[in-house]
Write a sequence for this structure.
């Protein structure tokens, strides 16, 4: 099992693929259909060697770049879809947490169970926001307590705290 390192000038890749800067140091998996095609083409070109005709080399380079950029674009699409699904889950969990803000007993396991995901998954999706699920919940409770105190809905801090789930 061997690897081939392909160094593509950024400007050349960006001319074919928007967002190419996200592909720095990218490994193309050979087990996907497009990855297998790219692998095969690059290996054949490496084995082919240097052509004596400059126009042949130029045409091969352009064809290879089209195949590689198409492969990377396919991987970008899969990553974008995964990120979109992760963001949707994050918003769904946040809505659930806000709806249950007043419940003092809500914890990571209860939230995960209600959303049919693992506590680890919850932690990972909140990590993309630079926080944890419980820290996010705590901040929401603080903001809600502040709002209750500011608009006079409660008479004191203790009442505000209990009404938003602090115990």
């Amino acid at each position: 099992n061997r690897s081939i390192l392909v160094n593509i000038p950024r400007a050349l890749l960006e001319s074919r693929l928007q967002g190419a800067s996200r592909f720095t140091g990218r490994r193309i998996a050979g087990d996907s259909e497009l990855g297998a095609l790219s692998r095969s083409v690059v290996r054949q070109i490496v084995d082919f060697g240097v052509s004596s005709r400059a126009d042949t080399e130029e045409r091969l380079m352009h064809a290879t770049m089209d195949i590689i950029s198409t492969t990377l674009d396919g991987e970008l699409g899969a990553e974008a879809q995964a990120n979109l699904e992760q963001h949707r889950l994050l918003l769904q969990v946040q809505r659930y947490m806000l709806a249950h803000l007043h419940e003092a007993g809500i914890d990571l396991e209860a939230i995960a169970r209600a959303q049919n995901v693992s506590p680890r998954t919850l932690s990972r999706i909140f990590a993309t926001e630079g926080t944890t699920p419980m820290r996010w919940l705590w901040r929401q409770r603080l903001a809600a307590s502040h709002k209750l105190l500011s608009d006079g809905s409660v008479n004191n801090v203790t009442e505000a705290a209990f009404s938003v789930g602090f115990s």
User: Anything to note?
Assistant: The mean pLDDT is 84. The radius of gyration is 26 Å. The helical segments are 10-14, 33-48, 54-99, 108-115, 119-127, 133-150, 157-163.
